[in-house]
């Protein structure tokens, strides 16, 4: 969040304006060139360039008039597979974790080397927390402003979920997943349950609500061999002056989290910068 806030502050300092909580309904196109965006309230913002970092499926299916999308391209888009969604468990602890993890704040954990076994449950749309692997991060290692007491710690756990549909995530199922994940984390942090001051869970439905990523996808397109090529969903679209960035573009070397997303945005910025110079 600090990185996002810093970039936003620099943008504003250089004369930019950030408009929040306004949903774009259409990308305005004239003569196959993007000319701006139209908000849900019909407000039109004219622009020489449009950059979309949302779900590429929504960019092309919902924001662009169908006549500007070729049958070939849409056929290619329809074959792509999204990454699996995640559930995010957030814990506030009354215990420092430095001794257990030293300088590590980002830990992938599995109790088995059979990673394919965990993915099999996902493909079968089954939940098996015990056999799943998880990503545990401790953001308060890096940013102590996240806690109000020097003895406290903030822990976030991500665990892949199968595509179960949004109706699955009622309160009972949310609580079931929350407690199962905490139980698994005890393999890493013994007796963690006795140190929890607060706990909460963000479901795939939560991630969809705030990001509009299809199904709450955690990492854009699934990172498999058939979806790596940079020609599949490139940053430069087939519509002039329309660019895409983020984890819904294909880079040629797979997905790499925040670093990859930032690199994607930087590349688009350079392209636009060079065009402006001309």
Write up what this structure looks like.
A hairpin with a 2-residue loop joins strand 1 (24-30) and strand 2. Helices cover 30% and strands 19% of the residues. With 278 residues, it is α+β, with helices and mostly antiparallel strands. The protein is built from 8 helices and 10 strands. The strands form 3 sheets. The chain has a 5-stranded antiparallel beta sheet with strand order 6-7-8-5-9. It has a 3-stranded antiparallel beta sheet with strand order 1-2-3, with no helix packed on it. The longest helix is centred in the last third of the chain and has 21 residues, at 257-277. It has helices at 2-13, 56-61, 71-78, 98-101, 115-123, 171-185, 204-211, 257-277; strands at residues 24-30, 33-39, 44-46, 50-52, 86-93, 106-109, 134-137, 153-160, 196-202, 242-244. The relative contact order is 0.16.
Q: Which key phrases capture this entry?
A:
single chain; 278 residues; alpha+beta; 5-stranded antiparallel sheet; 3-stranded antiparallel sheet; 8 helices
Succession of helices and strands: HEEEEHHEHEHEEHEHEH
* Largest beta sheet: strand ordering: 6-7-8-5-9
Number of strands: 10
- Give the overall average pLDDT: 89
Fraction of residues in β-strands: 15-25%
Distance between the termini: 35 Å
Helix fraction bin: 25-40%
Total of DSSP H or I helical runs spanning 4+ residues? 8
Low-confidence stretches: none
Structural class, please?
Answer: alpha+beta
What's the main sheet like?
A: 5 strands, antiparallel
- Cα Rg: 21 Å
Shape: globular
């Amino acid at each position: 969040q600090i990185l996002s806030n810093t970039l936003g502050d620099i943008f504003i300092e250089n004369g930019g304006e950030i408009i929040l909580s306004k949903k774009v309904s259409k990308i305005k196109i004239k003569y196959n060139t993007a000319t701006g965006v139209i908000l849900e309230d019909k407000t039109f913002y004219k622009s020489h360039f449009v950059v979309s970092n949302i779900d590429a499926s929504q960019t092309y299916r919902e924001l662009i008039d169908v006549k500007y999308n070729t049958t070939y391209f849409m056929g290619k888009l329809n074959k792509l597979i999204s990454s699996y969604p995640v559930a995010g468990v957030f814990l506030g602890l009354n215990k420092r974790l430095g001794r257990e993890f030293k300088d590590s704040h980002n830990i992938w954990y599995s109790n088995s080397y059979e990673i394919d076994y965990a993915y099999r449950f996902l493909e079968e749309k089954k939940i098996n927390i015990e056999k799943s692997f998880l990503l545990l991060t401790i953001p308060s290692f890096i940013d102590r402003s996240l806690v109000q007491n020097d003895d406290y710690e903030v822990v976030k756990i991500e665990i892949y979920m199968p595509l179960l549909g949004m109706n699955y995530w009622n309160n009972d199922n949310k609580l079931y997943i929350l407690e199962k994940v905490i139980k698994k984390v005890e393999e890493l942090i013994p007796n963690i349950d006795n140190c929890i001051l607060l706990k909460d869970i963000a479901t795939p439905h939560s991630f969809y609500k705030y990001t509009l990523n299809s199904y709450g996808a955690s990492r854009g397109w699934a990172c498999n061999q058939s979806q790596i090529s940079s020609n599949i969903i490139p940053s430069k679209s087939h519509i002039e002056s329309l660019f895409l960035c983020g984890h819904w573009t294909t880079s040629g070397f797979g997905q790499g989290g925040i670093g990859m997303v930032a690199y994607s945005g930087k590349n688009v910025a350079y392209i636009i910068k060079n065009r402006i110079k001309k």
